[in-house]
From TrEMBL, chains A, B:
Record InterPro entries: FUR, Fur_C, WH-like_DNA-bd_sf, WH_DNA-bd_sf
Molecular function as annotated in GO: DNA-binding transcription factor activity; transcription cis-regulatory region binding; zinc ion binding
Family, similarity comment: Belongs to the Fur family.
Keyword terms of this UniProt record: Cytoplasm, DNA-binding, Iron, Metal-binding, Repressor, Transcription, Transcription regulation, Zinc
Stated name of the protein: Fur family ferric uptake transcriptional regulator
Keyword DNA-binding: yes
Amino acid sequence: MAETEHAVPTEHVHLTHEGMLRAAQLRVTRPRLAVMDALHERPHADTGTVIALVRGRHTNVSHQAVYDCLHALTDAGLVRRIQPSGSTARYELRVGDNHHHAVCRSCGSITDVDCAVGSVPCLHADDPQGFTIDEAEVVYWGLCSVCQDAADDSQDQSPTRTTQPTMEGRR
Amino acid sequence: MAETEHAVPTEHVHLTHEGMLRAAQLRVTRPRLAVMDALHERPHADTGTVIALVRGRHTNVSHQAVYDCLHALTDAGLVRRIQPSGSTARYELRVGDNHHHAVCRSCGSITDVDCAVGSVPCLHADDPQGFTIDEAEVVYWGLCSVCQDAADDSQDQSPTRTTQPTMEGRR
DNA sequence: GCACGTAACTTGAATGTGTCAAGAAAACGC
DNA sequence: GCGTTTTCTTGACACATTCAAGTTACGTGC
């Protein structure tokens, strides 16, 4: 189980989150802070995971509230929503940089990938019939190191990894 | 309503589809041919559209059969499944080339985009922590020419376009 | 051409993610 | 502190997709 990935005290994170909410002119509420904490602790978490994390450490929060929070935060640009094919919606605290994601076909784990080609990678599609493009979203599909090793070692031993659900969506 | 986009007689297309099924060692059934016809006529159609098209010109086909066909065809590599964030699954007859998609934030229409950087574009992520990447999927987000014009002209006139449903998923 | 075995389809129900709606609670500005 | 507005709670709903059991029909061998 992954701990907080950056070595930042929780209080400071909390204060930062509060400031981010205020800067975005959003009201500071317990559910919103809890959602942001959850996403800070577990990047790329899906909605169910967020709900579980929020409920794990705080008082009861309705699933609807979590959905509302995620929508509000996404609309405000504080949270980024990603949804690889075959997966439910996942969220991450937006870092503001332009990074992409690598998704493991076997276990569904998601890893951040820095832009391969400089800062703005594949944003230059050659005039796609009048389209005005403002964002390029890149998803790399493959096998994570763990699942790859498991596949190499033996074929009858199914790969297990972290707490991410198995992903069967993609061929 | 768009006609068949390539000037190929339907019979030939049908024969081609049958051959593709046999080559993939799949049984040739009416529902499968109907699904392939539907995708040939309407690329990037979602499941509901495929069901409607199949039922429109053929006898009753259960929705379950359409799902099974799409899965079988996807597994066999004859059909490619795409799922932009906020949209349901969409399918297209696989051309075998490595092309990407541009999705309109306003009307949800999808346009094919040829690879910007040569034949295999963004496949080289710089060693994403041991990931073995076999495919890079790129989705360009923006506005199609129609919705762009509509936005430029007047703001109170909502853009209308083809028969694609409105897309509200993405910010 | 006919029969058999298996893959594929039909029917019906279930799962689960996400949304809608109405009322209650709480955050923020004064 | 008080009122307004946003946000949360509760409950129900909508929809895409899947599961399961039984029937149909495709393809192969005779």
